[in-house]
Amino acid sequence: MTDEPMIRIEGLSKAYGEFLALDDVSLTIREGEFFSLLGPSGCGKTTLLRLIAGFNAPTAGTIAIDGKASTGLKANQRPTNMVFQNYAIFPHLDVAENVGYGLKRLRLSRAEEARLVQEALDMVQLPDLGRRRANELSGGQRQRVALARALVMRPKVLLLDEPLSALDKKLREEMQAELRALQQQVGITFVLVTHDQYEALALSDRVAVMFNGRIAQMDTPMQLYQHPVTRQVADFLGGMNFLDSRILDETGERLTVETERFGRLTLAKPAGFAAAGGRATVGIRPERLRVLWDDERAEHEITGTVASRAYFGETTSLAVRVEGLDAPLSIVETNNFGADGLLVGAEIRLAYDPDALVLMSDLR
Amino acid sequence: MTAGATVPAAQSRRWRESDEARGLALISPTLLYAIALLLLPVMIVILYSFWSQDYLTIDRTFTLKNYQEALFQPIYRDLFLRSLSISLVVSVTTVLMAYPIAWYISFHGGRNKNLWLFLVTIPFLTSYLLRVLSWKVILGYEGVLNTGLMASGLIHEPITSLLYNSNAVVITLVHSWVAFAILPIYVSLEKIDRSLIEAGRDLGDTALQSLIRVVLPLSLPGVISAFLIVMIPTVGDYVTPKLVGGKDGVMIATAIQVNFGRAANWPLGAALSVTTMVLVSAAAGMIVLGFRALVRSVR
Ligand SMILES: Nc1ncnc2c1ncn2[C@@H]1O[C@H](COP(=O)(O)OP(=O)(O)O)[C@@H](O)[C@H]1O
Ligand SMILES: [Mg+2]
Q1: A222 and A241 inside one domain
Q2: Which of A197, B5, B144, B233 lies 20 to 30 A from A19 at CA?
Q3: pLDDT for A206 beyond 50
Q4: Signal peptide location in the record (chain A) (predicted)?
């Protein structure tokens, strides 16, 4: 492995008229990495992916792929291949012709081409569909054909634009596992675009969270989930109880704050942290609050009243009203201890670990 | 027995209430009209083609002698061949000229696509006759082209080979039909999912390869319709050869007209018409198959 990343993007911007779809984005992606671009619809994920693929030219900034500046290179001159959101299977060709489309240019022998096509079809576990055309395939099969068609080219980077979003839940989860296994098998750098935070967390080595054409945070899934740098990122990646706090002391990397009910906490400052008016936002994930049963005791406890509940089968979500807090705390409990039996109005005690609390910038 | 009788009744009621029946009922006025005005004359023509005529009396005994004449008289054979070849040349030229225009409007028309299409159809606001006659003005002995070339010093005496031959017929027909060819090609180009073109580029196609391997095959239905829309009516075109074709540009329709008119041989005219229809259908079928094979070969 060399030090040079597979993809190096510097100061990349893309404007459509007055509108900045991508605003000064810089990032590097390592060779063999499974990298995801995560963000709400319209935040610029596809725009970024299309700039990497070479379908559009940036307004400003540079992209280097495998150490080679790609300015001025068209899609057919880049070592990248794309799996399109709608799969873009050629309707006038059958499955094998679709998969072999890019190989035609290489002028291989018929047998060699057939072998490579078969290898790619095996890789994506597509059963023999014979001479079937694109309009005779199911969604899952199309997705596999699109994947095989790109992989057969042995690209340095595989770009995937929401490849699973059109599939139903069950198939999507199956394909997620397959995609991850496939990436580890072929060792190609994957760049996945998704708006599904669970997908990004489950599949990726690293994730870039995007809002409004900018990258808000780029980190490993665990770091992102546990240490979101802004309120916005925390919110997008799952439930979060936000608590207002007063800053007492600031010492280099750490901040001491006073929080209603959770008391005095000394927390690490997130990157780019800026306090506003001596106040800061602290948060704790719902599953990091645990219901205490009977006479069980914990070092850190809070008492409250169940204000509302929602039953999800394996888990129950509770909103717990706590004296002194503006908003009820939301908590998630698995149902093996009897959380599903808690009724609205019940008095309960909650335990938490102070390490589970994080400090965030207040950006919304 | 009673049960047996009610089943068909119920079935027929069900049929009367079905979508199919409603559809038929809905189109029946137009359908009847079409049958009356299209099928009936054709049937009559076919009938006549098996009869014979002696001055003003029609002899209704079955005979094949009209077809014999239509197929084996050198004059008619030559006219059939010329009509077919002129219409083929016109169709090929028209489609070749229409495709780039349709392509440009569809891919680079931006927000002005409708304006472009409107501009394409503007010549059709004038009469067909005027358009044909205007070519006479352009191609004539003292026409626009000749005077222009003379004035520029490129030629010293008028070119006489411009008008009154089959080239003039081809030029005029291409101009008459090009907009009709642009529209179906444009529609089929519009229907192409742009991500398919990008997928091709992504898999290594140059711009030209993408045109040949993705755009062209996917717009084939439009090309075929354009081709047939131009070819079928031009085989039997009457006005254009009459006005700009001269002696060398005579086509089969003129012979048919003569037989129904001055020569007063309706059965022969009918046999010539039927033969034209059969030849055109056969040519159309072969062209469709030919296009398909061509596209399959470029994969
Ligand atoms: N060709 C275009 N012309 C104008 N605006 C565009 C174009 N493509 C994308 N946009 C805009 O850029 C923003 C980002 O789009 P996109 O990258 O597709 O978002 P995402 O993939 O994250 O949902 C959107 O607001 C979209 O409307
Ligand atoms: Mg998108």
Answers
A1: no
A2: A197
A3: yes
A4: none
Residue having the nearest C-alpha atom to atom 16 of ligand 1: A44
Instruction: Supply φ then ψ for residue A163, to 5 degrees.
Output: -70, -20
Domain boundary among A208, A226, A244: A226
pLDDT in tens, A150-173: 999 999 999 999 999 888 889 899
Q: Residue A102's domain is classified under what CATH number?
A: 3.40.50.300
Among protein residues, the one whose CA lies closest to atom 14 of ligand 1: A44
ipTM above 0.90, yes or no: no
Q: Do A68 and A212 have their domain in common? A: yes
Instruction: Tell which wins on pLDDT, B166 or B56.
Output: B166
Domains of chain B, with CATH numbers?
50-298 (1.10.3720.10)
pLDDT score of B2: 46
Q: Is residue B1 scored above 50 in pLDDT?
A: no
What integer is the mean pLDDT of A290-306? Answer: 92
Atom of ligand 1 lying closest to residue A162 CA: 21
Paired with A256 in beta bridges are A249, A266
Decide if A88 and B203 are in contact by the 8 Å CB cutoff.
no
Instruction: Tell me, yes or no, whether A175 and A250 share the same domain.
Output: no
Q: Give percent of chain B with pLDDT exceeding 90.
A: 58
Q: Considering only A48-57, A127-136, B34-43, B97-106, which range has the smallest mean pLDDT? A: A127-136
Ranges A26-30, B7-11, B32-36, B122-126: which has the least confidence: B7-11
Number of domains in chain A: 2
Pairing of strands A347-351, A290-292: antiparallel
The Cα A147–Cα B282 span in angstroms is 44
Q: Which of A226, A251, A266 is the last residue of a domain?
A: A226
Predicted local distance difference test score (pLDDT) of residue A8? 97
Which residues, other chains included, contact B24 with Cβ-Cβ below 8 Å and sequence gap of 6+? B31
Whether B199 sits inside 8 A of A153 (CB atoms) is: no
Give residue A101's domain range.
5-226
A315 shares a domain with A282: yes
Q: What is the pLDDT of residues A55-72, one digit of tens each?
A: 999 999 999 999 999 999
Report how far residue A294's alpha carbon sits from residue B268's, in angstroms, rounded to the nearest whole number.
109
Identify whether residues A222 and A235 lie together within a single domain. no
If you measure from the C-alpha of residue B110 to the centroid of ligand 1, how many angstroms do you get, rounded to a whole number?
A: 17
How many CB atoms are located within 10 Å of the residue B53 CB?
19
Ligand 1 lined by A50 (C-beta under 6 Å):
no
CATH number of domain containing A281: 2.40.50.100
Domain co-membership, A31 together with A99:
yes
pTM of the predicted model as reported, rounded to 2 decimal places: 0.86
Nearest CA to ligand 1 atom 1: A16
Higher-pLDDT residue of B9 and A250 is: A250
User: CB A81 to CB B202 under 8 A?
Assistant: yes
